[in-house]
Amino acid sequence: MAAIKPLGKVALVIGVFCVFSARPCLAEDPTPMDAPLPPGKITTITCQCTEEIGKKYKALGVPNSGTYHYKVYIPEGYDKETDRKYPVFFFFSPGGNAGMSGLDEQIKRDKWIAIMAVEAKNGPWDAIYGNIAAAYEDAAKRLRIFEGMRFATGFSGGARMSGVTAGILPGVAGIICQGAGMPDNGHGGYIYTDTLKKNKTAICMIVGKQDSNFSEIADMQKQYGGNYPYFYIQTFEGGHEGAPKDLMDNAYKWLVEQTCMNSEPGKIPKSFFLDYVKNKNDQAGQMTSMMDKLDSLISISTLVTKQKLDKDADFKDIFDGAATKIAEIRKDPAFKKESAAKDAYVKAEAYEKDIRKKVAEVKATGNDLKNALNLIINSYKTVARIHKDTAYGQKAADKAAEIEKERG
Q: How far apart are CA 21 and CA 37, in angstroms?
């Protein structure tokens, strides 16, 4: 079999025994399908990867048959809204026994089912595939989940497992890769690239600027950059560590909205969509930045229109209210000044992205790296100077100061 770069920086041949392997237990009976699932709580489920399931999900290797586990969070109201189906988020960890990876608030607020793999961790792919396949096959029968809104995330090796999940499971619309990209195929590319592109899978990559895997941003850009519109990069000051909560929240919102925009009307269950829009409207009402509030309200209007629910009675008040507030903001005397500042800031962001891409491609260091960072700093300082009395002018000043710290 081909060697790949799976879970860390060290390449490993699929099927070779590894001391980090989470070999499945064969003794436990599966959790009964009618076992209680307390809403608002996490329950551990025991499930099987049979030979039949293994053959179904054969990809890089045949999933190990045996007994596996996953933890499942059940949203509040699950036991009462018995006709409702729910979105699902898969979570993975390089050390196994995954948690909700900084998305606890979003999962609970927007009523997601969370599936957290237990055995899947850095090691042979066969055991990882076994846990993914067994958990999904069990959850598809046990839980009321819908296909249109399934996401996955994880850190480091867990990020690579998320990519595998999108490649082999149906209906995975987006992934958040923290601290790593997809597993490579041993031939200068990534596994499942064609599958993810065909499915228009939204991919958000979040990596620390001092992360040993930072160069993988450039590698992923070669595969998914350019004309592929569903690839989003975020970076932060830090090393090989999980993404900060604010960046995870950005990624979450981006995935949900990409999925809603790309889904045919009616594919996203109205119950989930209504809850999401209501929460987004409440958050917009608490925003102090005029431009951030405007962007959020425009997003609400666009999403509702795209799903053809602008005339629906359940959405009418929110939709009409958003239109009224948008008009009020645009009439505000300060709007023109803030709008110009935002446009300038967005251009500076695009310039930074372009410079960082070139830096990553040539692996610039020393004075070359400092000179590149100086170009970015000066771009933001120009925005801050010209638009000094605006929110985005201040944002540009803060960004310049942040990059100055990075430059040293």
A: 29
CA R_g for the chain: 23
pLDDT, tens only, 22-46: 445 456 899 999 999 999 999 999 9
Domain ranges, residue 400: 335-407
Which of 241, 262, 283 is the last residue in one of the domains? Answer: 262
How far apart are the C-alpha atoms of 11 and 184, rounded to whole Å? 9
Q: Are 178 and 203 in contact (CB under 8 A)?
A: no
Same domain, 274 and 246: no
Q: What is this structure's pTM?
A: 0.82
Q: Which residues contact 199 (CB under 8 A, 6 or more apart)?
A: 166, 172, 173
- In the DSSP assignment, the letter for residue 75 is -
Q: Note the pLDDT tens digit of each residue in 82-137.
A: 999 999 999 999 999 999 999 999 999 999 999 999 999 999 888 899 999 999 99
What is the average pLDDT value for the chain, to the nearest integer?
89
Sign of CA dihedral 36, 87, 168, 3: negative
DSSP H or E run through 399: helix 391-407
How many domains is the chain partitioned into structurally? 3
pLDDT, tens digit, for every residue of 55-81? 887 755 567 889 999 999 999 999 999
